[in-house]
Amino acid sequence: MTETVAGSELYPPKRPLFGRAVLRRAAIPFLLTLLTLAICASVVIGPSDVTFPDVLALLDASLRGDPAGDGLRNAVIVYDIRLPRTLLGCLVGAGLAVSGAMMQGLFRNPLADPGLIGVSSGAALAAVAAIVLAGSFSLVIPSSLRPHLLPVAAFAGGLLTTILLYAVATRSAQTSITAMLLAGIALGALSGAFTGFMIFRSTDDQLRDFTFWSMGSLGGATWREVIAILPFIALLFAALPFVGNGLNALLLGETDAYHLGFDPQRLKRWIIVLTAAATGSAVAAAGAIGFVGIVVPHMLRMAIGPDHRLLLPACALLGAALLVGADILSRTIVAPAELPIGIVTAIIGAPVFLSILLRRRAVFDF
Amino acid sequence: MLALIDHRSLARRPSIARFAIALLALSLHATSLAAADVPPSRIVSIGGSITEIVYALGQEKRLVAVDTTSTYPAEAAELPNVGYMRALSAEGVLSLKPDLVIAVEGAGPPQAIDVLKSSSIPFLEVPDQHSAAGVAAKIRIVGKALGVEARAEDLAAQVALGIAQASTPGAGQTDRPKVAFLLSVTDGRLLVSGAGTAADSAIRLAGGKNAFPSFENYKPVSGEALVAANPDAIVVMRRKEHDPTQAVRAIPGIHLTSAIRSDRLIAMDGLYLLGFGPRTPGALRELAEKLRASDD
């Protein structure tokens, strides 16, 4: 029903190799296969020489008892480094892609991304404050908690900015999307200024820490991070059916959505809460990873259309697969060092995105 | 092995032979001692000064990788590189199969260090103090980890003495010259060292005093503030093909400062001057000489 409504302006109907009906039916099985392949590859590929046979031998040894000798090192590499890293990549990628799709649906704007509700700029400000000020409060914070300071601060900072923005844009129980957009720009500039002030106060080391943080990395992945982010992404997945139907209705406009039986205000609130929680926890765990939230939803919308009931789960699968794949590159290209994953996602994502746009332009001239 | 030596020939040239036997016995003794706790032979060195110390102790054959801050000696750059010291990859380090990781204080991220420690690879974090005692302690710690305590003790004593001598003011020198350290000069924007930095320590140890003691760390400062501070010497960081002295001379009003009038605009290599490793005595002596040069 909504296929012809929202997509029509941005993506005119096309005459591709496969009909959209075929693509729609094949989308979930195809993306599931892609994600499974990416996960398997991520567990058997890395800078060290632990490959497929070693992983099999390790699984065998683990099932029969404790691995020993060379197996111990392999066990650390597979169980403590690659597995949590792969799972964190899945959760972060899925969270960012779904958040992006929800934001574009809510704002009815193809350029929308989670940054619009202030969660990214708030998280960045809190992160740099945690990096720069951690030393000043070292007496207050016990040393055992200090490693958790940055992710907790980033999460709280993202959430607080979103709450502030929501409060500013809401008048008599009605949230104005335009007010939210404009106030978001103002708040972004403000937190940018505070971030700049923190950078001014920082030492060389702190500045480099922040620079690396802002390019994102799954390098800090341990089981602790996976468990910390899991509830937020699980909440997002649990809400997908409700949000999918609601966003479809919202594409017709707020009044029509209301007449279809959806309370737009309740929907907005839910989407903002879910996005802030998912993006906030993703940014807290892996730093600022750009582009996933824009490229993945657009690629899928071009292939399977804007029906959010299908689009949102598809975004979760492709986002997860893309980030896991990008992470394989990030830790092998310059091994034994590691390239920040934000660089990889942009280097892969931008040309793919451009080529899709150009191909469509050649056919349909827009 | 000792049995193979012809005792009669030893008798003929007693002094040399006894010396040789003593040396041989000593080295055998040393190897057996070290072999008892198997000295590490695959070492990852993280931090420019740590790598310099490993080279200064003649143990570079045991290095399997360094980090991006290890730029001296030039051969170190040919080793595999594990990336920036504060953004290490746990599996990247593990892939080199090290039996010892030596890192200068501040290496990270903490999660990667935790994983490395849990993989039962010895991980040694070396404190980083910008003083004679600090450098000597660094050398002793690295030497002990490598099982070359005697050489490390010699080097540590020599370096500590060298730093102490560099800091003694020259004869007839009463006032400590006021020194401004510029970390970078880009488009006329100056990044100047305040208190608490390696540059601040280097200035003090070379017999000078910091022209900007009022703030901590490196901060952007206007050209006008630099002129107003009127330093007796300006030290800039020289990088490979980049000499920032021209940019400093282009700062409006800079010719009014005592530093430019007495021609004490000094360019020095960053890791050499600020690394606080085995080359520090030489760097401090060089800086001290330049601070005293054409002092009239």
From TrEMBL, chain A:
The chain crosses the membrane at residues 26-46, 87-107, 119-141, 148-169, 175-200, 221-243, 270-298, 339-358. GO terms for biological process: siderophore-iron import into cell. It comes from the Bacteria. It is found in: Cell membrane. Pfam families: FecCD. Keywords: Cell membrane, Membrane, Transmembrane, Transmembrane helix, Transport. The keyword Secreted does not apply. It is a multi-pass membrane protein. One of its GO terms (cellular component) is plasma membrane. Its main location: membrane. InterPro entries: ABC_BtuC-like (IPR037294), ABC_transptr_permease_BtuC (IPR000522). GO terms for molecular function: transmembrane transporter activity. CDD domains: TM_ABC_iron-siderophores_like. Belongs to the binding-protein-dependent transport system permease family. FecCD subfamily. This is Iron ABC transporter permease.
Automatic annotation (TrEMBL), chain B:
The keyword Membrane does not apply. Residues 1-35 form the signal peptide. InterPro entries: ABC_Transporter_SBP, ABC_transptr_periplasmic_BD. PROSITE patterns: FE_B12_PBP. Keywords: Signal. This is ABC transporter substrate-binding protein. The keyword Protein transport does not apply. Residues 42-295 form the Fe/B12 periplasmic-binding domain.
